[in-house]
Design brief:
The structure is a homodimer. The first copy, chain A, has about 350 residues and is of the alpha/beta class. The first copy, chain A, has three domains: about 10-15 and about 85-305, 3-Layer(aba) Sandwich (Rossmann fold); about 20-85, no CATH class; about 310-360, no CATH class. Chain A has 16 helices and seven strands. The first copy, chain A, has helices at about 10-15, 25-30, 40-50, 55-65, 70-80, 100-115, 125-130, 145, 160-180, 195-200, 215-220, 240-255, 280-295, 300-325, 330-340, 350-360; strands at about 90-95, 120-125, 150-155, 185-190, 205-210, 230-235, 270. A seven-stranded parallel sheet of chain A has the order 3-2-4-1-5-6-7, sandwiched between helices. In chain A, helix 4 packs across helix 5 (about 70-80) and helix 15 packs antiparallel against helix 16 (about 350-360). Chain A starts with 9 loop residues before the first helix and ends with a helix. Residues about 1-5, about 10-25 and about 130-135 of chain A have low confidence and may be disordered. Chains A and B meet through helix 5, helix 9, helix 11, helix 12 and helix 14 of A and helix 5, helix 9, helix 11, helix 12 and helix 14 of B.
C-alpha cells in the first residue's frame, strides 16, 4: 500500500461532519480590525459552525483567558457548541524528545488532510513541562501542516497548572469539533504528569518509541506503556530498518504479557518512517480499526461518557484542593507540619487532621 | 542453596531491632479479664515495646475503631510509637486468587522466622474487594504461620472505604514496627483499587504470577506490572517447571522494556515453589539485595519520606472530597448535573462549577 492509495479518511467513520466551510466575511472583517471587539455567544458559535478559523481562535483565546468575563463568555460559546461535538476521533500522541514526534505528526497529519480529513493538533503540557520538548512550543517544526488549510495547530496554553491546561485543552476539543475537525491530535511529551490527563480525554493513545535506544534515552515514564493502544516505532528507515523491526517484535510480545485492557483491543506495535512514509498508513489503519471495533462493542461511547463524568469529578476535586493548598495561612501550617511528619513526631494522618481542623476554623 | 543454609535474616540489614520479648504480665493479665478496660497511652506503648502481642492487638483495635474516643487514644499510642519505627522492611505482595498467595506467604514467612526474623502479615483490601480472594479473610489457610510465635497475622479491617482501610493499615505498620517486627508483609488481591495504596506504603512490591495462564486467568489490573520490583512465578514444581521457566524468561525480557524505575533497580522475574521451597530463598535474596542497593543510594530513605508526605496530602484530599460528596443535598445536585453532562447540555467544567458554587453556598 502506498501512502495515498487506500488511505481512508476519518470521515468514513464519522459521517456526521457538516458542509464545507464558508467564511462569514462580516465577522472576519471585524476580527481584522485592530481594536478587536468581543462578539456575542451566537456570533462566536456561528463563526465556528462556519469553520471560520479566526473566530475559532478567538473563542479558544476566551477559554484560555484568566479574565472572569472572558471565561464566562467562553462557557456560553461552549454550551452552544456542545450539541455539535463528539463526532471526531480524538488521538493522544506521546513520545519523548528525539523520537521524531513533529515529523511523525506532519507525516500522519498530511496523509489525513490529503485524504479529505480535517485535523486539529493541540497540546496539553503545561509550560513547566514544555521546555522538556513539546513540539508545539515551536510551531515552525511542522511547517507543512501549518500551511495546510485543512489543519489547525494550536500550541498549549502558555501558563497554568496541569489541571488548568487540561481543562482548556478539553474545552478546545469541543470548539474544534464544532468547527468540523474530524480528527484531533493531542500531543504530550511523555515525561511529565500530563499523560494520564491526555489518556482521560482521548479515544486512542499512541505511544511513539525509538528502536534500540537505551532506557536513559527512552526516558518515558513508567505506566505510560500500559496506556498505549498502539506503539509506533519511529525512524524505521535506512540502516535503522532491521533494528526497528526487531524492536517491534519485542514490544509486541511485551504487550501480549500485559493484562487485556477494558476495551478488549489487544495493543500492537508497528514500525514507521516519517521520511519514506512507510508504515504511516498502517498506523492510521490501526486507529480506524480500533474505532470501528470499539464502536461496535459500544466501548467507544461508554468511554466518552465516563470521561465526561471523570472531568466533572476531577474538576471538583482540583478546585477543593486549590482552595485549601493555596491559602497562605494553611500553606505555612503545612510547611511546619510536614517537618513534624518527616521527623517522626506525628503520623501522616494526625498531621492531616491538624491541617484540616485549622482550615475549617478559618 | 537449600532452604535454610544461607538464609539471611532481615535483622542483618536492620540492626536496630531491640531486645528479645519479655511479657509484661501485669498488662497481660488485665487484658485477659472479661471486662477489658482501656489502658493509658504509656501502658499501650510499653506493652508494644515489650512485644506483648495482646497489647499490640488491642492497640490495633483502637486504631480500627469507629469510636472517636478510641481513635484519639490510638493516635496518642501511635505518637509514642513513632520514634521506635521505620526499622523494618515493608513488602507489598499482590497476586490474583489462584496464584497461591497464602502458601507462598507461608513458605517465605516460615523461612524468615526460622532465620530469626519477626514477621507481621497485614492486609489492605477493603471488605468490598475481600470476597474476590484476599487470603487474610481466611486465616486458616496460613496455619503454620498462625502458630509461629515470631509471626503476627492481622486480617484487613472489616469495614470502610479504601482510604480508611489504607490509613488503618499504615498505622498498624507503625505499631508492628514498634513491637519489633522487622519484616512486614502487606497483602492485596491485585484486582481492585488497593495496589496503588499498597505501593505507596511499602519499600518493595512483589507481584506473584502464574505460568502459562491466559489473560483472563491472570485477571490482574493493568499498571500493576510496572509497579513490581520483582515478579515471582509461583507453582514452579512438578510438570509445571518448564512452563514456569519459560514464563520467567518472557516476563524478564518484558521488564527490560519498561522504563527504568526511579529506584535505579531493574525489576527481575524469578520462579519459585511453595511446595518444594525451591526459589523461595532467591526471592528473599532479591528483596535483601534491593534493600541494600536502595539504602546505599539513599533512595530507600528518600522514598519513605515521600510516602509520609504523600499520606498526609492524600488524607487531606480524601477528607475534602468526603465532605462534599457525602453531603445529601450535594449528592442530589450531582445526580441531576451528571445527566446534563451525559446529554451534552453542559460541559464537564461548567457542571463542576455549578456543584462547587452550590456546595459553598450551603
Amino acid at each position: 500500500m502506498t501512502s495515498k492509495e487506500g488511505f481512508r479518511s476519518a470521515l468514513k467513520v464519522n459521517p456526521g461532519v457538516e458542509q464545507p466551510p464558508t467564511i462569514n466575511s462580516n465577522i472576519a472583517s471585524r476580527l481584522k480590525s485592530k481594536k478587536r471587539k468581543l462578539l456575542d455567544p451566537d456570533q462566536y458559535a456561528q463563526g465556528i459552525f462556519n469553520r471560520d478559523i479566526s473566530v475559532l481562535s478567538q473563542a479558544i483565546t476566551l477559554i484560555e483567558s484568566s479574565l472572569p468575563s472572558h471565561h464566562e463568555l467562553g462557557q456560553k460559546v461552549i454550551e452552544k457548541c456542545l450539541p455539535h461535538t463528539g463526532k471526531s476521533i480524538r488521538i493522544g500522541i506521546t513520545g519523548v524528545p528525539g523520537v521524531g514526534k513533529s515529523t511523525f505528526i506532519e507525516a500522519l497529519g498530511g496523509a489525513i488532510t490529503q485524504a479529505g480529513g480535517r485535523l486539529a493538533v493541540l497540546a496539553i503540557d503545561p509550560s513547566s513541562e514544555r521546555s522538556k520538548g513539546s513540539i508545539l512550543g515551536d510551531k515552525t517544526r511542522m511547517e507543512t501542516l501549518c500551511n495546510d488549510p485543512n489543519a489547525f495547530i494550536r500550541p498549549s496554553p502558555s501558563a497554568g497548572s496541569l489541571g488548568g491546561v487540561a481543562r482548556k485543552t478539553r474545552e478546545t476539543i469541543i470548539l474544534c469539533e464544532a468547527a468540523g475537525f474530524d480528527t484531533i491530535f493531542i500531543e504530550t511529551v511523555g515525561v511529565g504528569q500530563s499523560e494520564t490527563a491526555v489518556h482521560s480525554m482521548v479515544d486512542f493513545f499512541l505511544l511513539l518509541m525509538l528502536a534500540g535506544a537505551g532506557d536513559e534515552l527512552q526516558g518515558i515514564k513508567r505506566g505510560i506503556m500500559e496506556m498505549a493502544d498502539l506503539i509506533a516505532i519511529t525512524k524505521a528507515d535506512g540502516q535503522n530498518v532491521n533494528k526497528a523491526k526487531s524492536a517491534r517484535v519485542q514490544y509486541e510480545s511485551a504487550l501480549h504479557l500485559f493484562p487485556m485492557p477494558e476495551s478488549g483491543w489487544l495493543p500492537r506495535a508497528k514500525t514507521c518512517s516519517s521520511v519514506t512514509k512507510e508504515g504511516i498508513n498502517e498506523v492510521w489503519e490501526q486507529i480506524l480499526e480500533y474505532v470501528e471495533f470499539t464502536k461496535q462493542s459500544s466501548f467507544f461511547q461508554k468511554r466518552r461518557l465516563e470521561q465526561a463524568k471523570y472531568w466533572m469529578f476531577q474538576t471538583i476535586t482540583e478546585s477543593l484542593k486549590d482552595d485549601l493548598f493555596h491559602n497562605p495561612q494553611v500553606k505555612a501550617l503545612i510547611k511546619a507540619t510536614e517537618q513534624d511528619v518527616l521527623a517522626d513526631r506525628i503520623s501522616s494522618f494526625a498531621a492531616a487532621k491538624r491541617i484540616l481542623d485549622f482550615y475549617k476554623s478559618i
